[in-house]
Amino acid sequence: MSTAAVVTGGAGFIGSHLCEELLARGAEVYCLDNLVTGVTENLDGFIDAARFHFLEVDISEKLPDGLPAPDVIFNLACPASPKDFGPLALEILDVCSRGTRNMLELARAHGAVFVQASTSEVYGEPEVHPQTEEYWGHVNSIGERSCYDEGKRYAEALVMAYRRLHDVDARLGRIFNTYGPRMRPDDGRVVPNFMQQALVGEPLTIYGDGMQTRSFCYVGDTVAGLLALADAGADRVDEANPAYNIGNGEEITILEFARRVNEACGSSSELQMVPLPHADDPTRRCPDTAKLRGLSGWRAQVSLEEGLARTAEWFAARIGDEGSDRAAGSEQAASR
Ligand code: UDP
């Protein structure tokens, strides 16, 4: 019997890779997305597969009747770019609260395993390095990022309530910065920005002094981490704290990261310092991933060099397609 999996946010960046991997494993996949930041273009490679079902649904509203009985639910729906934290603040708070609760109810009704996509943002501006799952975080509840940070913290609290009150087999995957093909080109995050700037020879915009750090995990590794978390036997999951970091432990300054993107793109774009556009930009972030390794043996496998090469190839192809679309458009205009 094949597994029935629900992926909310399945048309997004990480969600679409997760759907693809679940299909490759033989699962029946139900992708729920309201397309606020996801795009069906991300599903192009498999939307016609017999075991794939796309449902345009806002999980913050009442769920439609007739959803299948899932064995596992991956709750990824939520805008995740700092650029979204202003205009989509209310949607983010809704999906983290009402949306997550709706999906937890579905898990409860069918006895499904529930994997909540949580985030390194629950640690806020961390005072502990690297961040372990035991660290409670240091979060500004009224800052520009609070809709996301506190929304995800609230979602974690909901997960714990459903575990304690209703025995739902729910787990928390705290995802750190993830990159790869299908990132939204205009979402303002550092990877799409730097990639596109490097590929067209524009300056790379370093926010602040570039000494802030991040630890970048290739999307294939993040997806493997989510699946490892879902696959673990319930008796092995840490009952008191079912949170597991998913990320790559290689910490790098944004300045050095810009150099590595230039290398991956064969570019010599200048590095340009600009003022930080968003408040509360965390100064350091790096996961301790020993806990998930202990649970499942999972570890990030793709080096930054390899991951950036694959990502650069994808962005280069996109830019090429846009260029040929523009050229075709102007040829058509000229022939009219
Ligand atoms: N950043 C940057 N230039 C850009 C976009 C982002 O220097 O064009 C920095 C940003 O200030 C942050 C880091 O890169 O310190 C990662 O930002 P991103 O928005 O990708 O994700 P975050 O980890 O902040 O959620």
CATH superfamily heading of the domain at 4-179 and 217-249 and 282-301: NAD(P)-binding Rossmann-like Domain
Strand content bin: 15-25%
| CATH class identity of the domain at 4-179 and 217-249 and 282-301 | Alpha Beta
- Uncertain segments are none
CATH architecture of the domain at 4-179 and 217-249 and 282-301: 3-Layer(aba) Sandwich
| Strand arrangement across the biggest beta sheet | 3-2-1-4-5-6-11
The secondary structure category is: alpha/beta
**Oligomeric state of shown chains:** single chain
Helix content: 25-40%
Which of globular, elongated, flat, extended, rod-shaped describes the shape?
A: globular
Could you characterize what this model shows?
It is a single chain. The protein is globular and about 55 Å long. It has a domain at 4-179 and 217-249 and 282-301: Rossmann fold. Helix 2 (89-110) runs parallel beside helix 3. Strand 4, helix 2 (89-110) and strand 5 (113-119) form a beta-alpha-beta unit. The protein has helices at residues 13-24, 89-110, 146-166, 190-200, 219-231, 254-264, 290-296, 304-335, and strands at residues 4-8, 28-33, 52-56, 72-75, 113-119, 170-175, 178-179, 204-207, 213-215, 217-218, 243-246, 251-253, 271-274. With 336 residues, the chain is an alpha/beta fold. Bound molecules: uridine-5'-diphosphate. Uridine-5'-diphosphate binds next to helix 4 and strand 8.
